[in-house]
Write a structure and sequence with these properties.
The protein is mainly α and 266 residues long. The chain has a domain of 123 residues. 76% of the residues lie in helices and 0% in strands. The chain contains 10 helices and no strands. It is elongated.
Length: 266
């Protein structure tokens, strides 16, 4: 008897057996995970932007990188003629030591906790340049010069990014608050928000750097330090808070709109 020529009743008898075999085989395949299906508990490999976000340390990393500058400002103002009246060179030495020392302590703390230290190393480099200029010239105001020039450069970069339709604030938000993802490019409303927010940041930075540069030309080193403490950081905090509010307003409104049924929107 050739294949396919068996009686009809025999074919019906073998059909349940075939189903049993198929079910057993499928259970074996699933048990051995032969389908290679991704499991729910498996984590995807983070993208390059997400890894950069982790390396930067988020907002905490930005705050820590500003501590050495704050240490220099406070020590130079408190130990100099303004408060304790120490000799200019002595006050400058203490200020330089405090800024460099605090930067090293932050790096050591992060190393001890096995946390990323790249931003701390960058901070030490920037502090070292300002400290070298101040020590070489013997004038505390030169400690602030690299930061002032860098801020002006940031203003130019922010404006250019808007002109070429690549707003930097959008990238910063993607790295620090969106796990390194930049899907905001496809969101026209969010894209426009980042365009004008980038200009807001450019104006904010220009005011901060402009006031400090004017004081630098006036040879008012202590005034530059006071401005950094009393003016620069509040302006930065206000701009940051406004940015967070503006972005949250757009994202929350879009999320609420997406959850609203189409019939209600009509």
């Amino acid at each position: 008897m050739t294949a396919g020529s068996e009686p009809r009743h025999a074919a019906h008898e073998t059909e349940p057996a075939r189903r049993v075999v198929d079910e057993v085989a499928e259970e074996v395949v699933e048990e051995l995970d032969l389908h290679k299906k991704p499991r729910d508990d498996e984590e995807e490999i983070p993208s390059l932007s997400e890894q950069i976000s982790d390396q930067l340390g988020g907002v905490r990393g930005l705050i820590e990188s500003s501590i050495p500058v704050l240490a220099f400002v406070l020590l130079n103002v408190l130990l100099g003629n303004t408060v304790l009246g120490l000799e200019k060179k002595t006050a400058l030495s203490w200020a330089i030591g405090g800024s460099v020392g605090s930067a090293l302590l932050i790096g050591a703390y992060r190393l001890a906790r096995k946390q990323p230290v790249r931003h701390a190393v960058n901070g030490i480099f920037g502090i070292a340049v300002g400290a070298w200029l101040a020590w070489r010239t013997g004038d505390a105001k030169n400690f602030y010069l690299p930061g002032i020039l860098l801020t002006f450069a940031q203003v130019v970069a922010l404006i250019i990014s808007v002109l070429v339709r690549r707003p930097i604030i959008g990238y910063v938000w993607g790295v620090l608050a969106n796990r390194g993802k930049h899907d905001w490019f496809a969101n026209q409303r969010l894209f426009r928000t980042f365009q004008w927010l980038t200009l807001v940041w450019a104006a904010s930075l220009f005011v901060r750097a402009g006031v400090q540069f004017w004081l630098y030309l006036a040879d008012e080193a202590n005034a530059i330090g006071i401005v950094r403490i009393l003016i620069s950081w509040p302006i930065y905090a206000a701009t940051f808070a406004f940015t967070a509010w503006a972005v949250h307003r757009v994202t929350a409104d879009q999320a609420a709109h997406a959850e609203t049924p189409a019939a209600e929107r009509a």
